[in-house]
């Protein structure tokens, strides 16, 4: 097996991380989090550990949740969560830039305030006649079911990205991260950034994000994958990708290798694929070889809920990646961050990051 090498850093690891080194695009949401019973899941025909877009029969939920005991409002959206986790580990503000779309309302103001206080340099496209997107985060026995009503989040347009001041931010960045959810929001913006990354030999990264993505947005995912230098996903998402492409296998190693070896535009970089699998070893294909990284299992009594674990993992991973650290360090920091997240309520973090 070919051993994992150090990442090709765009600057010396001994230097301070430049502001705006990482750009993320995604769907900014306000999470409405509540601990619920199985009867609530059954009422809305939901699974105990899933992520879906709201359908008509789910909409009454958003009127019901705010009235429930223990409701919490947390800034969310997959990409924004990743950048918040990244900033928490890095510990210096404005290293990550976020583009997305919100409404001109109180939820939007809350998102702006909370994301900025977390260190993320947010540049929202604001829609006066749309409401800020929300996500029902339903916590049941340490697991979470996510039900998203995108609202303004799905209204992002490429003209916002193409504003001189925003495209300058893109050009100055060295790393780009897109959640799978954004595939349906603004493919032209996504592909513009993907092309820029390939042409300038910068890192473009995508997360599968949810099992429905490879089915509902197969074309958009297939268009983005050739430009993807690092692909993230978990077991169910990887299996869904295999099913959507008729691969007739749920062997994670086989799926990871196929994903890594599929068509790639920028031939200067091989594709890295990272597949997490709960407490089971993380499967990574990198530089042509496949490797497994063990995961430390936490005692069940310290786990509050698993919401945000995957985003926390990626945020920690990216914090070491941009420093030019070896792959092993990125995996270890990702695991550390994910484990810190699941000991909190929602995708939140302790006051200080203790990762060394």
TrEMBL record:
Active-site residue numbers: 311 (proton acceptor)
Keywords: ATP-binding, Kinase, Magnesium, Nucleotide-binding, Nucleus, Purine salvage, Transferase
PROSITE patterns in the record: PFKB_KINASES_2
Recorded catalytic activity of this chain's protein: adenosine + ATP = AMP + ADP + H(+)
Pfam family name, one: PfkB
Location(s), subcellular: Nucleus
Protein name stated in the entry: Adenosine kinase
Annotated GO biological process: AMP salvage; purine nucleobase metabolic process; purine ribonucleoside salvage
Source species, domain of life: Eukaryota
Purpose: ATP dependent phosphorylation of adenosine and other related nucleoside analogs to monophosphate derivatives.
Biological or metabolic pathway of the protein: Purine metabolism; AMP biosynthesis via salvage pathway; AMP from adenosine: step 1/1
Presence of keyword Nucleotide-binding: yes
């Amino acid at each position: 097996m070919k051993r994992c090498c150090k990442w090709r850093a765009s600057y010396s690891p001994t230097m301070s991380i430049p502001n705006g080194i990482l750009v993320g695009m995604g769907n900014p949401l306000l999470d409405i989090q509540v601990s619920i019973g199985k009867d609530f899941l059954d009422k809305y025909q939901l699974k105990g550990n899933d992520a879906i877009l709201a359908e008509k029969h789910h909409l009454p939920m958003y009127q019901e949740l705010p009235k429930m005991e223990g409701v919490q409002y947390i800034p969310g959206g997959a990409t924004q969560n990743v950048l918040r986790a990244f900033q928490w580990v890095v510990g210096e503000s404005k290293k990550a830039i976020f583009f997305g779309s919100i409404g001109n309302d109180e939820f939007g103001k809350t998102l702006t305030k909370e994301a900025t206080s977390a260190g993320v340099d947010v540049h929202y496209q604001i829609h006066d006649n749309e409401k800020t997107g929300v996500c029902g985060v339903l916590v049941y026995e340490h697991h979470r079911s996510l039900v998203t009503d995108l609202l303004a989040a799905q209204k992002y347009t490429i003209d916002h990205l193409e504003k001189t001041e925003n495209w300058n931010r893109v050009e100055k960045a060295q790393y780009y991260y897109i959640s799978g959810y954004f595939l349906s929001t603004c493919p032209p913006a996504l592909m513009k950034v993907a092309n820029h990354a390939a042409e300038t030999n910068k890192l473009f990264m995508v997360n599968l994000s949810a099992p429905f993505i490879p089915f509902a947005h197969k074309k958009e995912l297939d268009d983005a994958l050739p430009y993807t230098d690092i692909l993230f996903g978990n077991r169910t998402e990887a299996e869904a990708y295999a099913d959507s492409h008729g691969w007739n296998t749920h062997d994670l190693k086989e799926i990871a290798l196929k994903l890594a070896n599929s068509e790639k535009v920028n031939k200067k970089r091989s594709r890295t694929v990272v597949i997490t699998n709960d407490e089971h070893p993380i499967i990574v294909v990198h530089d042509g070889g496949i490797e497994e990284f063990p995961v430390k299992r936490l005692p069940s009594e310290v786990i509050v809920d698993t919401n945000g674990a995957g985003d926390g993992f990626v945020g920690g991973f990216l914090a070491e990646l941009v420093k030019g650290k070896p792959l092993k360090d990125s995996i270890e920091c990702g695991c550390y961050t994910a484990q810190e997240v699941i000991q909190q309520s929602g995708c939140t973090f302790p006051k200080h990051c203790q990762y060394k």
